Amino acid sequence: MHRRFPPLPVWLTRPNRWDLVAAALVFGGLASVIVAAREMRVSLEILDATPIALDPAALPGYAARTTLRTFAALALSLTFTFAIATLAAKSRRAEKILIPLLDILQSVPVLGYLSFTVVLFLGLFPGSVLGAELAAIFAIFTSQVWNMTFSLYQSLRTVPHDMEEAAVAFHLSAWQRFWRLEVPFAVPGLVWNMMMSMSGGWFFVVAAEAITVGTHTIDLPGIGSYVALAIAERDLAAVGAALVAMLVVIALYDQLMFRPLVAWADKFRMGETAAAEAPRSWLLTLLRRTRLVRSTGTSLRRRVHAIAMWRPAWRAVGVPLSRAARTRIADLLYYGTLTVVALAGAGLAVALASGIGTAEILHVLRLGLFTLLRVAALMAVALVVWVPLGVLIGLRPRLAERLQPAAQFLAAFPANLLFPLAVVGIVHFKLDPDIWLSPLMLLGAQWYILFNVIAGASAVPNDLVEAARSLHVRGWLWWRKVMLPGVFPYVVTGALTAWGGAWNASIVAEAVRWGDTHLVAQGLGAYITLHTEAGDQARVALGVIVMCLFVVILNRLLWRPLYDTAARRFQLR
Amino acid sequence: MNPGTEPLLALQGVRKVFPKAAGELVVLDDISLTVCSGEIVGLLGRSGSGKSTLLRGIAGLMPLTAGRILYRGTAITGPSPGIAMVFQSFALFPWLTVLGNVELGLHALGVPAQEASRRALAAIDLIGLDGFETAYPRELSGGMQQRVGFARALVVEPTLLLMDEPFSALDVLTAETLRSDFLDLWRQGRMSIRGVLMVTHNIEEAALMCDRVVVLAANPGRVQAEIPIPLPHPRDRLSTAFRQVVEDIYALLTARPPAIARPLGPPAAQHLRHVSTNVLAGLLETVAAPPYDGRADLPEIAEDVQLEADELLPAAEVLQMLGLAELAAGDIVLTPAGRDYAEADTQARKRIFSEHLLTCVPLVAHIRGVLATRPNQQAPRVRFEAELEDHLSEDYARETLNAAIEWGRYAELFAYDDQSGWFSLEDVTA
Predict the structure, then answer these.
(1) Residue B236 belongs to domain with CATH number
(2) pTM for this predicted structure
(3) Chain B residues with CB inside 8 Å of A171's CB?
(4) Hey, are the CB atoms on A269 and B136 less than 8 Å from each other?
(5) pLDDT tens-digit readout, A513-538
(6) Of A70, A108, A303, which Cα lies nearest the Cα of A204?
C-alpha cells in the first residue's frame, strides 16, 4: 500500500514546561502504584490457573485465547481513544496536559507496565486468574493505544475548515458534526494505526502471557505461555509448532481483518481523484456482493445513521454561536490542581528513588547508555542493509506490490518466538551475549524500516528517476543526490517506529533463557527483567523511568530535528 | 427598490476586528448594505477587503465585533434556516454519495427519511444531476461537484443564497455553463431562493450575473461604491453597455481609495502582496510593447495575458507602489522608470528594481538597515516576522516577508538562507 509521507507526529513537539508536569504525573503515578501494591498481600498459591500442556493439539485453543486477548485490548484501546482524543481536541485546558502526558506514557516500555500493574490487578481479584488476565490485556492495551489516540486527535484537529463551515452552515449539531464529518475524516488514519497497533500487539501478547510475580510465574493459557513452557523444557519441536500456529493466526488476521478494513477505510480518504491502486480485499468484495450481507448492512447502516444524526428534541435548529466561557478562576483552579498533583507525584517518585541510592541510579544510567549504544548500532546496521534493498524493491512496482505485504506481515510476527533459536546458537558457538543478544532487539522492528522505504521509493515521481537517468547520474552520485533524499522522509518515519520498538524489545531481548541456560547482556532491559523476576518493584520503577527518559529526551533532541529536516528539505510534492 | 420587493438582508454598521499584540487588526469597518428580494448582489473587492469574512458573518459562521445583520428583520446570531451557502471549494463530503451529500442538510433539520430522499432527488433532478445519485464526489468532474454543491444548498429551500466564488475553481467553459444554467433557473423562478449575495473576484462574472455590485475597499474592508447594473438578461458580453460596466468596475477597483485614518502600524509593517518578479517583469514588457506602447486598458490586457482580475490587479498595484507604473481610470500607464526597465538588460533591470525597492518599500529598507548595523551583518527571519505580526495577521505577515525576500533577493539587496531562516549581507555586491 502506498501512503503519503505522514506529517510530523503530534507528540514530537518542542519541549515545554508541560512536559515536566506530565513526567511528574506519570512517574508519580508509577510510584503510587508501587506503594499501593506493597499494601496488598497477594497469595499466589490458590490461583485457579490450569497448567499448560505442550500437546500441539492444544495449540488452536491457545491461539484463540491469545487472539481474544488482543481483541479485548483493541476494544479497550478504541474506547480510550475516542474518549481521550476527543477531549484533547475539544478542550483547550485538557489538550495542554494530555498531549505531553500521552507522549510520556507511550515512552514507558510496555512490559514495564506489566511489571507494575500485575500485583495491583491480582490484588483487585484475589484468588482468581482474572487479575492476571486483566494485567496482560492492560499491557497489550498500552502497546496499542497511544498511536491510535494521537491519530484521532490529529485528525480531529485538521478537519478541513471549509467542510467544517459547510456542516455548520447546513445546521448540523456538534454531535452530528462529530459523527458525520470529524470521525469519517479520521477513519483512514485511525484504521491504519489500529492495524499497525494490532500487528505490534502480537509481540507483547506473547510476552505478557507468562507473568512473573516475585518467585511465582502465572501462565495464562495462550501461545506465549506455550512457548515459555517449551523453552523451560527445551522442547524445540514445540517451539516450532508455536511458530506455525502464530503464522496461521497472523495470516488469518491479515486476510480477514487488516485488508478488508483498510480497503473499506479507503472510502473515507480525502482527495479529488480515485487512487490509481486502491487497496483491495477479496473478503470485502465478497461481502459487498453477498445479498444477505448487503441487506443486513443496509439496515445496520440505517441504524448507525439514526444515531449519528440524533438530535435532542429540545434543542432547536440554528443554535447561536457561543464562545467557550473562559474564566480566570476556572483556569486558576485547573492549573493549580495540576501543579499540586504533579508536585506530589514528583515528590513520591523522588522519595522512592532516594531509597535506592545515588550509586544505583548512576549504575542504571550507565546501563541505559549500553542499551542506547546497542539500539544505535543496530539501527545503523539495519539502515545500511534495508534502505538500499528497499529502494531497489520500491523502484520495481511489480516486486514492490508483492513484497510490501510480506514486509508488513513480518513486522506483525512476534520476533520473541524466535529468541530460543538465538540462544541455542549463542550457546553452541560460545558467543559473547553482550554483542550477540543485541540483534534480537531489532528482529521484529527492522521491517518497519523496510516497508517504509519501499513505500518511499514507490512514491518518488517517475519523472525524477527518468530525469536522473537522462543526465547520466549513476552510482554513488545517484544514491547521494537522487534516491536517498527522495526516500529520506520515509526512512525517518520507519526508523522512528523501529527505534521505539527496539527499546521495548530490549526488555525481553537482553535477558533470555533456554531451559536452565540464562543469557544476560549488560543493559537497561536486562536490569528491568531481572528485577521483575526478583520482585524488586522500586528498582523496576527506576529502570522504567530511566528508559522512559532516554526515549523522550532523544525523541526531542534527535528525531524532532530529523523530522523537521525531512519535511522542509526532502518532501516531494 | 421596486415596489413589491422586501429587504431580505440588511447589514448595519458591521465591524470585525481581530486583536493583535500592538492594537488590533480591523478587517471590516462600518459596512452597511441591503439585499432585496429579486436581486442578485455581487461583492467585489481586492484581496484584503474582507469579502469572504463578511459572507461568513452573514452565514452565521463567525461572530462580529459590532453592528447588526438582519435577515428579514431578525438579527442573525448563528446559521439561520432561511440561508444556504455554496462554497468555492465545493466542501462536499467525500464519503457520502451525491444523494447522501444533498440529503445531509435535510437530515440535520430533522426531515423524515422518505421526504428527505424525495426532496433530494427533486433537487438533483432540477440541477441536472440525475443519473449520478449513487456516485461519490471523487468520481465527478469539478463542474458536476459544484452542481452537487448547488443542489445541497437548494434542497433546504432557502430564501437567501450565499455564494463564495462558486465558479472560480472551475475551468472557463464549465464555469460559463454553470452560470447560465443557474441564471436560467433563477429567471424561470424554479428555485425557492428570492435573493442572492455572491462574492466574486471575476469582474466579468459580476457584470454578467448581478443586478447590483458592491465594491469593497481594502485595509480595512469598507464599502467603496455600489454600482447598479440595469442591463436586461441574457446579457451580451460584447455589447457596448456591458463593456462599459466592466470598465467602470475596473476603474473603481484601481482608483486610490479615499485616505482614511487607520490605526495601522509603521510604514515598514504594511502588507505586501507576494507577486513574483517574473510576473512584474512580464507585465512591464507587455505594456511597454505594441500595441499598448506604455498605456493599456486593464480589461483588455487581462484578456491578452490570460490573467484574472485578482491576479492582474495585485501585480499592477505592486508596480504602482514601486513607481514603475501608474493606475488611473482602469488604465495602467508606465512611468519613465518603468519604460527604462522594460528596455534594459538583466543587470540594468536589477539596478532599477533595487533603487525603487529601497525607496518605495519601507520594509526592504528596514531589513537592509538592520543588517547593516549588526556586526556580523546577519539577522534571523523571526525577528522581522515578530515585528510584522504585531500589526498584521499571521498569514499576511508571512506573505509580506516572503514578498520582501523574493524581491530583495532578485534585487541582490540581501541574501536569505531558507534552511536556517537567516538574512545576511554576504555575497551581496550592491
Answers:
(1) 3.40.50.300
(2) 0.81
(3) 79, 81, 105, 108-109
(4) no
(5) 787 888 888 899 999 888 888 878 78
(6) A70
